[in-house]
Automatic annotation (TrEMBL), chain B:
Membrane topology reported for the UniProt record: Multi-pass membrane protein
Statement: the UniProt record of this protein carries the keyword Amino-acid biosynthesis: no
Main location: membrane
CDD domains referenced in this protein's UniProt entry, alphabetically: TM_PBP1_LivM_like (cd06581)
InterPro entries, sorted: ABC_transp_permease (IPR001851), LivM-like (IPR043428)
Entry's transmembrane regions: 6-31, 38-59, 65-85, 155-176, 209-229, 241-257, 264-289, 295-313
Domain of life, source organism: Bacteria
Entry protein name: Branched-chain amino acid ABC transporter permease
The keyword Cell wall biogenesis/degradation appears for this protein: no
Subcellular location: Cell membrane
Amino acid sequence: MRRAVIIFTAVLGFLFTSLGFGATSALAEGEALQGTLINANQPVAGVAIKVFDQGGTSAGEATSGPDGKWVVPLKAAGTYKVDLDTATLPQGVTVTTGRSSLTLTVFEGAARNVLFPLGGAAATGPGAATPEDEGNSQLSRILDLIYTGIHFGLIIALAALGLSLIFGTMGLTNFAHGELITFGAVGCFFLNVTVGLPLELAAVAAVVLGGAFGYFQDRLFWGWLRNRRTGLIGMMIISIGLALILRYLYLFFFAGDTRQYSAYVAQPGMDLGLISVAPKNLIMDAVAIVVLIGVSLALVMTRLGKATRAVSTNPSLAAASGISVDSIIRLVWTIGGALAALSGVMLGVFQGVNYQMGFQILLLVFAAVTLGGLGTAFGALLGSLVVGLATQLSTLWIPTELKNVGALVVLIVIILVRPQGILGRRERIG
Amino acid sequence: MNWDIILGVSLESLINATMIAYALAAIGLNVHFGYTGLLNFGQSAFLGVAAYGLAMIVATFGLPFWVGILAGLGGAVILALLLGIPTLRLRADYLAIVTIAAAEIVRLLFRSVSLSEWTGGSDGLQAFSDDFYAMNPYSGAVEISTLISFDERELWIMTVGWVLVAIALLIVFLAMRSPWGRVIKAIREDEDAVRSLGKNVVSYKMQSLILGGVLGSLGGFVIALRNAAVQPDTYGTEFTFYMYTIVILGGAARVFGPVVGSMIFWFLLTFINAFLPSAIDAGLIPSWLMNKNQAGAVGYIFVGLGLVLLLIFRPQGIFGDKKEVMLDGR
């Protein structure tokens, strides 16, 4: 009997880990809203926070602890309204922005930080607490979504450019590209939090490491497979296997929870008229735009860029005209790895670091690349912005949790009407 | 370190319901990938639609069990049509991306809060399997030697599952030696040649997609009834990746390949998942190397490694013929 019980427990435990519950249900865990209430460098305890979902039903509440921290675990990703009960604030302390009620989006598997900047009542002007009128807030919501869409689109574009170049030059649909993204985020986390480098330095180092990871992946693995004349579909399935290995290696070393970098976690937004944007996001946008334009210009203007485009058009002809196809592909892997790592670092700042963040975003990257036209670099940029805006703006009509569905439906519709994508060439789709 | 238990659960997983569900899913996928050369990365959606079809009909709408089974099968056919119409004209890698996207859409819809009135959201649905277990002819557990024992519920689902496996294998065997099967295999080898012989390639591919989807959906019923619950994240993309590992391990385009592949896959995975935690407990694996939380990831690292090594060194798997494995791009 006892043995039966033990076996039963073993089987049960095993089933939970093996049926993919252990693997995928991590998605469902960890969604939360959290924050720290601080007034004049002192934590504020005993403040009541209430969270409501879109339907207006309560999704949980919390009271800030002695360290000023509060957490409301959530059941699912989505849009939530967070109310700070101003009556529970200590005498003379107010929310300096006058917004004690915020509407925020929580992403799958990520804990979202909520910032209520507190200050003495004297610091607040009498007009600061006036609620915004309705029309204005609808417009600012749309503008906010457009901004987030572009921001998200740029993050996707960084990854999509590399994926598209790799597809163009060696024909591989790389399902392990998401793991290059995670590599950047996890590498940056390691250097930033474990080693203790400042985030900016850690980010640069992570991008360099990402490039090296791409280079060695091609040098040691994909290049070897090319020499063995492995078929393209074989390589595609191999990339799935490689993605599994890498993802679970991240899980092995990084564990399953979502963690934040040590700096810029909850940066207060700058008021830009109708929307408020954290300066970190603007800086990241600028970096992304500069990098994307730089790589695109390099593709058009430099000899190496020309060689890259020659290889993606016709590898044999490129080889015949004296271009070293292998070293071009290796270069593309290096750039692709670095771009993906940069994308991962930015995604990590945006939504926290998680071992399957790259895998979760991979389908959107694929959607962007396919939308723009597989193998075309500029198409990938265009497709990414479309995907970014489509995911964000679709939340005006459909629930936030389904916004990725919106982007994927757009992908399928585009394939129906224009299978070669926006900038693709007809003969590629066969 | 209790070798009896480790060996016991590993041996059980050679024939238990989980293995049967994956075998059925892989038999369906083998029709797509092995015989027709369709890179369907959305096979998990077929299982999900079947399982949810059954669960929703019974648990949400209160209709009889058999209506649920019919709804699940019908759902799989409809999904095949929806998936196939836009994608079957496309090249292999496009097909892969679109099918994987479609499977994610299905999963996200199942777990969405707005549909939770019918699907139960991320918690899924329970209480739909009573009618099935009411038909259970077994009344007690069976022990085979001292290592393996199955309770009556598991025995009943295993019996049904193995009958389904036998039927599915028979269908595949008969279909693939028929003229229809020869056309299907010819499409894998050279689509244009088949087209030039006057065959409607898209229509044949669609029939193959439906056949494989329906066979796979049987696995969805087995897994739902085995757990007496459906949960959206079971039907994620990784599920499909495991099916590919199984198909390639056993040998693509071989009738018995998926079943043998599923047996070996589950035996090894169960063994690793049972062995590592107890080896850590027993101090055989030093704690700086691995703790019990990390042990769960190791099994999946080996799955990925196995898939990579198989495709590089033995793409035909155990039984396959290298000439029959569709691994070259077009």
